[in-house]
Amino acid sequence: MTPIEFVARIKQVVYDSTATGCLSLLQKPPGRKPSSKLTELSSWFNRLSAADRDKVQDVIKMASADSIFG
After folding, report:
1. HEC string of 1-70?
2. pLDDT tens per residue across all 70 residues of the chain
3. What pTM was estimated for this model as a whole?
């Protein structure tokens, strides 16, 4: 595996799945009784305008990238 392939794989496996998973949690928390904190955040997120939800998604992606590559 070359260094470029390694970074691409990290991006795919860690970055993309983390960002997608976090956004999914905010949109619709899983389980019969998600934590009250997650439910509260989900309610807040789902009340945001589409533009503001996009900004939150950008922040999630930035945090995910910074945690890996920062």
Report:
1. CCHHHHHHHHHHHHHHHHHHHHHHHHHCCCCCCCCHHHHHHHHHHHHCCHHHHHHHHHHHHHHHHHHHHC
2. 898 988 888 878 887 888 899 999 999 999 999 999 999 999 999 999 999 999 999 999 999 888 877 7
3. 0.77
Tell which residue, 15, 16, 45, 11, has the closest CA to residue 28. 45
Question: Distance (Å, rounded) from C-alpha 31 to C-alpha 48?
Answer: 23
CA dihedral 23, 28, 32, 36 (to 10 degrees): 70
